[in-house]
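PROTEIN–LIGAND DATA SHEET

This sheet pairs a single protein chain with one bound small molecule, zinc ion, given as SMILES. Inputs appear in the order they were entered. The predicted three-dimensional arrangement of chain and ligand is reported afterwards as a token string under its own label.
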Amino acid sequence: MLNLPDDFKPLDLLAIAAHPDDVEQTCGGTLIRMAEMGYRTGILDMTAGEMGTRGTPALRIEESREAGRRMLAAWRGNMRFPDARLENVLAARMTLVGELRQLRPRVVILPYWEARHPDHYNAGLLAYESCFLAGLAKLDEGASVPHRPFKVIYSSLYANVTPSFVVDITAQFERRMAALFAYESQYGDQDQGSGLFPAREEIRERLAAIARFYGNLIGVKYGEPFAVKETLRVDDVVSMGVRSF
Ligand SMILES: [Zn+2]
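PREDICTION REPORTED AS:
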């Protein structure tokens, strides 16, 4: 479906999200930072956001590719599952299993398991179950080589819950904003006279305030929150970051 080349190199980190521009608002700074560290990163959007009032699905996918480039992602794809009606059904899981076995990510970022928008939690559950199924050797035998990601981390920014950890994205924040504004059909100035320029400033201010809030939790300017279901391991308590006083 995604038509990856045969010599596609496995991803170190893959962010899976419901809609184009979710990643830019929730975990894009972390993706940028990991790419800067030399990791091979990718983004897989479940839908093309065709329920949005502005632009077309084709245009949004094109814009998402540009946004991906701005976030230094090695690869970005779109499943074209139906927007606003995303469902965790067998056919969708099996399609996703095939893609995961090609992308072969070591770590995946999923949307947090509770959300207001059903697409967000459905995307998280669909992707979680697909990650598990992708590792079953006897599932769809012969069609693809089994692969199960080592770790699943959840992007919790939309959920307003206490995160398990926060990534410092102070140095990546501006690049992440530039990636978001690649969606010109959503955030561009095509609506002359409707005060869209202030709207863009407003979006920037809102995202900065949220990033600032999470950054503050770890003593930096901007941060992105994540939750994990497993306990985090610490090997050296003497060098732990984030001061207590
Ligand atoms: Zn969304």
